Amino acid sequence: MKTNLLLLFIASIAFNLCYSNNPILVNESTIMLDLEQTKELYFSFAEGDEIIFEMEMIKGKHIKEVELIEMPSNSIFTEFKAQRINQKSISVRNKGIYKFRFYSSSITRRVCKIKIYRIPASDLTKNFNTNWKWEIKRDTTYTAYQQDSLVGYKTIKYQETIKELKETKIEEIVLLDRLEKVHSFLNDNKSRTYLKVDLPLIETSQLKEEKLIAWSFWIGVGKESQEAYKRNTKMIGDMTKGLASTYTSPLGAYAVGTITDLVVANTGSDIEYFFVNDYQNVEKFMNYQQFSLFDRGKVINSYGKKDYPNNGTFYLCLLNDNNYTPVEVDVKVVAIKEIKIFENITYNREKEEPQYVTLNKTRMNINETRVRVPIE
Q1: How far is CA 26 from CA 77, 111, 124, 213, 275, in A?
Q2: CB 41 within 8 A of CB 77
Q3: CB–CB of 329/297 below 8 Å?
């Protein structure tokens, strides 16, 4: 009787062992890999499980790399240039997700067939679900920072110095006023001459600015021209009688635009004139050579206004083409200069300056990460 009970107990233990060690198929797949391609399979396993892994090549010599990883990064099995893996057994110490990674570096396609089994540690995990799901994990961190906070305003008194225009005036400068004799063409002396005209210097400083607005000229032959200019002078005097004027001559008034016309002489001998930029061309003129100029005319009496050149020196060349009669030429050149005078004025000012205090604060940062977890 005792012997029969002992045999029954031993048979029961053997039955349970056989039942509990029966492998459960987790996955059977065919893996196809092209050049530089990786495929991954994820499964959940229970604590104490034994993983049985098999692989067999169907097409191609081998697969570059086969790896089993306990997630997130614990590599527990690696096989390089795997041709065949026969019932590789791996013990599961911790319940979790396991990744099967297959990688090929071959030019031609690789095809293999895999089988993955699990042997539960006991009946308690026999029906363990090897699927997985996504789970959002939130990681909270705190960052210290400083922030300036406005607490009010403070009135600040200060002084500011500003350059302001004090005065603007117009200055008339006589550059040339003379009677120039020009010999006749058949005279022993040359029937041509020249006059030098120096434009006024322009001064500029921190509190003074000057600008040449324009210059005007008068060219007339004989006493008729001189009388005409006197009539212009009288006309300007009558116009400005009792007024504070910025000019003193008819040419000055014409240069600033106060008058648009002057009286001229219409009878008498004529003169040919040339405005020349430099002395080199004056020498060519005097030596009967071709020369450069910026204005010319042949007149009994004429006047004009120009704004160029506005600095330096230019020349007025005169030519008498009368064979026997010398001429006396009345030549006048007037420049008009604008002068601005500034002064530095200091003002008492006030401004509102914001006042801040620095606060120490903490910012909460929540980082969300999606991870695979066992479905049970």
Answers
A1: 18, 20, 17, 101, 109
A2: no
A3: no
CA gap 221, 265 in Å, rounded = 9
Cα distances (angstroms) measured from residue 17 to each of 12, 71, 122, 202, 251? 9, 30, 9, 117, 131
Largest distance between two CA atoms of the chain? 176
Kindly list the structural domains of the chain, giving each domain's residue range(s) and its CATH number in brackets, ordered by start: 22-130 (2.60.120.380), 161-343 (2.60.120.380)
Instruction: Give the Cα separation of 53 and 118 in Å (integer).
Output: 9
By residue count, the chain amounts to: 376
Closest CA to 84 of 68, 61, 101, 105: 61
- Please give the single-letter amino acid code of residue 253: A
DSSP-assigned beta bridge partners for residue 28: 115
Tokens of 202: 């322009």
Lowest mean pLDDT among 29-38, 101-110, 238-247: 238-247
Nearest to 201 by CA among 313, 304, 277, 305: 313
Q: With beta carbons less than 8 A apart as the criterion, state whether 310 and 196 touch.
A: no
pLDDT, tens digit, 9 for 90 and up, residues 36-89: 999 999 999 999 999 999 999 999 999 999 999 999 999 999 999 999 999 999
Per-residue CA distances from 314 to 279, 286, 298, 306 (Å) = 8, 15, 19, 12
pTM: 0.56
As a whole number of angstroms, the distance between CA 284 and CA 190 comes to 14
DSSP letters for 32-101: EE-TTEEEEEEEEE-TT-EEEEEEEEEESS-EEEEEEEETTTEEEEEEEEESEEEEEEEE--S-EEEEEE
Task: List CB contacts of 372: < 8 A, sequence separation 6 or more.
Answer: 42, 71, 97, 132, 133, 134, 135
> Can you spell out the DSSP letters for 244-285?
--S--SHHHHHHHTS-S------SS--EEEEEESSHHHHHHH
Structure tokens at 87: 């019932």
What is the distance between the alpha carbons of residues 372 and 368, in angstroms, rounded to a whole number? 13
